[in-house]
Specification:
Blueprint (H helix, E strand, L loop, with lengths): L2 H43 L3 H25 L2 H10 L3 H26 L5 H4 L7 H11 L3 H16 L4 H23 L9 H25 L17 H33 L3 H37 L3 H28 L1 H8 L3 H33 L4 H25 L4 H35 L1
Helix pairs in contact: 1-2, 1-8, 1-11, 1-12, 2-4, 2-6, 2-7, 2-10, 3-4, 3-7, 3-11, 4-7, 6-9, 7-9, 8-9, 10-15, 10-16, 11-12, 11-14, 12-14, 12-16, 13-14, 14-16, 15-16
Length: 456
């Protein structure tokens, strides 16, 4: 066998192994954090339909704040990764401090907005009996915004260093705290008043605080971080570093918000069709969201791996690492698609035993299976581009893919062509496919250009 071919195969095997080692803890951490939302929903369902609806409404309002602000802070991952590659260890410590400052700067407007959104509920058609509960939920969970953002900042910093297991363990701790905190505050145990859905908000705030303290403790105590001198002395925010974070991070925040908003718009459009369509859609989208955590976790690892190569001024290696990551994500999502194709009824029966709802869910799960590959391609390709600190053009790509392709196609096929919910899901597929293709083409062109500049 050719020696070069053997070496190439060995390199691929090593890269896949490293990628999974870094990415799998991120996947598990994301699933654990999703489980907290699942626990909140299940426990609220034991209270009343109003409490359940209030959490659903409150969460849908909270999500854009969380997605955008955490997206802005994700900029620290490629920044740190590139500094690791170029061995700028003093810069790494500054990156950690500045992203913490950014987290609190972003938390201030988020906190005040979440506590003063009463005027918005009638505008979006929330029924009167739900408004005070949903408002109370948001006001309660707002107290957790400061630690939640700070936890995200430290987590993304560690991910830039390919240290991903601590966040996984801490998410597990968060889930373990969430269940008893919900029980005590929602149902009024141990002398506390029964707060219902509002208690869920306070419980979440407590969980966020516990997770932040645990992540801070790890960051301060971890021996490998000592050389970065992160907390050696108090330092004020520095404009140069904050502007770099915002220059790279704001497009990430906008990009992720546009993707989430496409799914939100399609969910709203489905809700105008029928109760059965809503129920079936909820099952399919919930399961697809869990499967999405696989390529999302890998995308974090891809960003770090690509960023470290760029820091070492090795664009050829960065390209190799990026496309190996995209390949792994694609293979795993093809397996996910196969699983959904083979067992749609069994997946649906986990959520409900209503035959009519299952029939609709099965139909939409087939659509979800189709977009698994597209979803994997777009998030892993975007992750590779983040490793290059290339986020502005991908933001425009997402604008085109999700808002100029995805939503119009969904509306046309769902209502004009009268395909209903499956037609709306075809719009999701089209948007994700366009984004997946363009992100990967962009990565190919960028790394080729970087390689050419390095060679010359």
């Amino acid at each position: 066998m050719d020696t070069n071919q053997t070496t190439y195969k060995t390199d691929i095997f090593k890269e896949v192994s490293t990628l999974l080692k870094v990415g799998i803890p991120v996947i598990i951490a994301q699933l654990l954090q999703m489980s907290m939302s699942f626990v909140d929903t299940v426990m609220a369902g034991r209270l009343s339909p109003e409490d359940l609806a209030a959490i659903a409404v409150g969460s849908s309002i909270l999500l854009p704040f969380i997605v955008f602000c955490l997206g802005c802070m994700m900029a620290v991952t490629p920044i740190v990764a590139q500094n690791v590659g170029s061995r700028k260890f003093k810069q790494i410590g500054k990156n950690a401090r500045q992203v913490l400052w950014l987290s609190q700067i972003l938390a201030i407007p988020s906190f005040f907005l979440l506590r003063h959104l009463d005027f918005a509920f009638p505008l979006i058609g929330v029924t009167e009996e739900i408004i005070p509960i949903a408002s109370g939920y948001l006001k309660a969970i707002a107290w957790g915004i400061f630690p939640a953002y700070a936890f995200g900042a430290l987590r993304y910093f560690s991910e830039g260093l390919s240290v991903t297991r601590p966040a996984m363990y801490i998410a597990g701790i968060g889930l373990l705290v969430n269940i008893p905190a919900n029980y005590v505050l929602m149902f009024g145990k141990l002398g506390f008043p029964q707060l219902g859905a509002v208690g869920t908000g306070y419980a979440s705030a407590i969980v966020f605080f516990v997770m932040f303290v645990a992540m801070l403790w790890f960051t301060v105590d971890f021996d490998a971080y000592k050389r970065f001198d992160i907390f050696g002395k108090f330092r004020w925010p520095e404009k140069v570093y904050l502007f770099e974070l915002l220059r790279i991070g704001v497009p990430i925040g906008i990009s992720t918000t546009m993707e989430v908003s496409m799914f939100a718009v399609v969910s709203l459009l489905v809700s105008t069709i029928s109760t059965l369509a809503i129920a079936g859609h909820q099952i399919a989208i919930n399961f697809a969201s869990m499967m999405f955590m696989i390529p999302f976790g890998l995308s974090v690892a891809i960003s770090a791996r690509v960023g470290q190569s760029i820091g070492r001024k090795k664009p050829k290696e960065a390209r190799f690492r990026g496309f190996v990551g995209v390949g792994v994500a694609s293979v795993l999502m093809m397996l996910s698609a196969l699983f959904i194709f083979l067992f749609p009824e069994k997946i649906s029966s986990i959520y409900t035993d209503d035959a009519d709802v299952i029939a609709v869910a099965v139909q939409l799960l087939f659509m979800a299976a189709i977009f698994q590959l597209s979803d994997g391609l777009q998030v892993s390709g975007f992750g590779a581009l983040r490793g290059l600190k290339d986020t502005k053009v991908p933001m425009y790509v997402n604008l085109v893919a999700y808002w100029l392709v995805g939503i119009p196609v969904a509306y046309y096929l769902g209502f004009v062509a009268d395909y209903g919910a499956p037609g709306l899901w075809m719009g999701l597929i089209s948007g994700l496919t366009v984004a997946g293709i363009l992100h990967n083409v962009r990565f190919f062109i960028k790394t080729k250009s970087l390689q050419h500049n390095t060679d010359s």
